[in-house]
Specification:
This protein has helices at about 20-30, 50-55, 90-100, 105-110, 130, 135-145, 170-180, 215-230, 255-265, 310-315, 335-345, 385-395, and strands at about 5-10, 35-40, 85-90, 120-125, 150, 155, 165, 190-195, 200-205, 210, 230-235, 250-255, 275, 285, 305, 325-330, 350-355, 360-370, 375-380. By secondary structure, it is α/β, with parallel strands linked by helices. The two termini are about 30 Å apart. The mean pLDDT is about 95. The structure holds flavin mononucleotide.
């Protein structure tokens, strides 16, 4: 049978490691190419031979492996080719390492080399006090904000004798949750999504600029979600920190609104959908001073000129059909203003969000689709969940 997907299963040192055997053998029986990495602690709970039998392949346990060619780089192969990575039982220790980019053993280093298109899943299991520890909770949030899907833990009786959240989800339940991630044809296969992300900067002089607090996290979450659904992604980003630039996309970096418009124009032909997630400055200085403007007790008056409206410009006369999703960030009269923008910009849906989402991992969102009467409120949710909902609209 031709292997369907390449799956990396990372097994950590928790009591529930034996339950991971059923997940690994279930995936192997479905015809997937499953490679197992066991941490040193995991080997105190289950012998590698058991996972070798369950997966039908040798188990990887060390960074320092003898061998030729790719075998010398177990931190890169198979991880860089993985379609799905599942870490189970995910210990507090391994979660912390993955969340913070530490690569001091084979599993944590392999997680650093997973491609952006890889589905990433973790199934935590630990003592209830460990699970409630704020450090663990922070690490879980970091992983979720980066697109890792969390399955569990479940409430119940724990091996340590305590009761509460901490049990590994049942293997059959984990396999059911993985099934949609392993489907052959992804809903956006063959489609191209153009995403505009981050703030713009409008320089007044070589030093100062008009900008805003957009971090680019929303755009990154959208790109990762589009990649996960099989789309090719063209990504135009304003100035953001490198951690808010997605991997695996056709990336163009710009500074000002005018540059963003021209990059978006270039990337538009052949795009099936455009998501206008950038926080574009509405104004720029009417005249740019090549010299730093001097400080003056009399104050400083700067004339501003309106920037082009990128969404309106690109959507007004569509040379080819594409779907367009815009964003509106409003401090007041949100729904009225967002509805006006939807109509004025000729876009297909608008996502209204509150200023609390600027620069944050989450936000308060609602959505209006062209032709519908009412906004649908999504409440305060992580940006990754908002990205999933937006991609669901496009699909
Ligand atoms: C008997 C025993 C059971 C353990 N069970 C768990 C567990 O379920 N979850 C967890 O996070 N840590 C558990 N630990 C602690 C981890 O094994 C320890 O933090 C280890 O360093 C994890 O390494 P790893 O993340 O590289 O697998 C357990 C330790 C012992 C001695």
């Amino acid at each position: 049978m031709k292997p369907k997907k390449t799956i990396l299963a990372g097994i950590c040192g928790g009591v529930a490691a034996y339950k991971a055997l059923d997940v690994v053998s279930g995936l192997a029986k479905q015809g997937h190419n499953v490679r197992v990495i066991m941490t040193e602690a995991a080997r105190h709970f289950v012998e590698p031979a058991a996972f070798a039998a369950a997966s039908g392949a040798p188990v990887l346990t060390t960074l320092w492996q003898e061998g030729d060619g790719e075998d010398k780089y177990p931190h890169l192969y198979p991880s860089t080719r993985a379609d799905l990575c599942i870490v189970l039982p995910a210990t507090a220790n391994s979660l912390a390492k993955i969340a913070h980019g530490i690569g001091d053993d084979l599993l944590s280093t392999a997680c650093l080399s997973l491609p952006a298109s890889c589905e990433k899943v973790f199934c935590p299991a630990m003592n209830v006090e460990m699970w409630r520890n704020p450090a663990v909770q922070d690490n879980v949030r970091i992983l979720e904000s980066r697109g890792w899907l969390r399955l569990g833990p479940e409430d119940g009786h724990l091996a340590c004798g305590m009761t509460g959240p901490g049990r590994l989800r049942e293997p059959a339940d984990i396999l059911n949750n993985l099934a949609p991630l392993l489907r052959d044809t992804k809903p956006l296969s063959g489609k191209t999504v153009l995403i505009l992300s981050g703030p713009t900067r409008e320089y007044l002089d070589p030093v100062r600029y008009i900008g805003n607090a957009s971090s680019g996290r929303m755009g990154k979450a959208l790109a990762e979600e589009a990649l996960r659904r099989g789309a090719a992604v063209r990504f135009v980003s304003g100035p953001v920190s490198s951690e808010n630039l997605p991997g695996g996309v056709d990336l163009k970096r710009v500074t000002s609104a005018e540059e963003m418009l021209s990059a978006a124009r270039e990337a538009l032909p052949g795009s099936d959908a455009v998501i206008f997630a950038a926080a574009v400055a509405d104004y720029r200085a009417s005249s740019y001073s090549p010299e730093k403007r001097a400080k003056s007790e009399a104050g400083l008056r700067i004339d501003l000129s309106p920037n082009p409206d990128i969404a309106a410009t690109l959507c007004r006369d569509r040379a080819h059909p594409f779907k367009a999703v815009g964003f509106a960030l409003q401090s007041h009269d949100g729904e009225t203003c967002a509805r006006k923008k939807l109509e004025a910009k000729h876009i297909d849906a608008i996502i209204l969000n509150a200023p609390d989402s600027m620069g944050s991992e989450s936000g308060t969102f609602s959505c209006l689709i062209n032709g519908q009467e009412e906004f649908t409120s999504w409440g305060r949710i992580p940006k990754h969940d908002a990205a999933k909902k937006i991609l669901n609209l496009l699909v």
